[in-house]
Design brief:
About 35% of the residues lie in helices and about 30% in strands. By secondary structure, the protein is α+β, with helices and mostly antiparallel strands. It is elongated. The N and C termini lie far apart (about 150 Å).
């Protein structure tokens, strides 16, 4: 009897310790922005975090009513405009769930590949259940993940990313264009100087001819 009680006490103690440990240890936060819009609650961020440049990702939007009931029908009513710097593109949301089969109800995705690292802005706009929606969600330390360059997590070699290669190509093209423009200007200046020399030389020959003719007459 004592043995059974001892085992029970051990099990209860171990369970209590596990619960206490789970309570004390920090748990990862879901890095998304939660915002109430009209009669609905929107949770928006990257579908995969941390978000790396060059890898498929998505704008994740989870919609529910304020009482927690998910919104399971928005097809064709809301869109996502993704902006980085001065560049933007619009994508369609599609459900990332099948009720009773898989996924979280109310979870919608707009799929795209972030090709450059940096701070992204998601503009969610359209009309849903009679309400106009036009809200911007910007990545950052208090909202959701910025896009990180893959070199920050590469192993064993930190190869340049696609974005870095594109930037380097742009810089090289700009440099070459400047060199070509300079060469063209130099060539144009040389042609101008050459034409002036020819004109001056021709004028000199004419004057010499006139002087020679006058001397013979004298």
């Amino acid at each position: 009897m004592r043995t059974k009680l001892s085992c029970m006490a051990t099990i209860v103690g171990a369970t209590a310790l596990a619960v206490a440990t789970m309570t004390i240890l920090p748990t990862p936060a879901w890095a998304h922005e939660d915002r109430g819009i009209g009669d609905h609650e929107f949770v928006v961020g990257f579908g995969t975090e941390p978000a790396y440049s060059g890898f498929p990702n998505s704008v994740q939007m989870v919609i529910s009513h304020h009482d927690g009931e998910p919104v399971n029908e928005i097809e064709g009513k809301l869109q996502a405009e993704v902006t980085l710097g001065e560049t933007s593109e619009t994508y369609e949301f599609e459900p990332n769930f099948v009720p009773g089969v898989f996924g979280e109800q109310g979870d919608y995705r707009a799929w795209f590949v972030p090709s450059r690292s940096g701070q992204y802005t998601f503009r969610v706009f359209g009309t849903m259940e009679g309400e106009k929606v036009d809200e911007e969600f910007t990545s950052g330390p208090d909202t959701f993940s910025d896009v990180v360059d893959t070199s920050a997590a590469s192993f064993p070699v930190q190869d340049p990313s696609t974005g870095e290669l594109a930037e380097k190509t742009d810089r090289e093209n700009t440099r070459l264009e400047a060199q070509v423009a300079t060469a063209q200007d130099d060539a144009s200046s040389a042609r101008t100087v050459g034409m002036i020399g020819i004109i001056v030389g021709a004028a000199g020959l004419i004057l010499a001819g006139v002087a020679l003719t006058r001397r013979r007459k004298n």
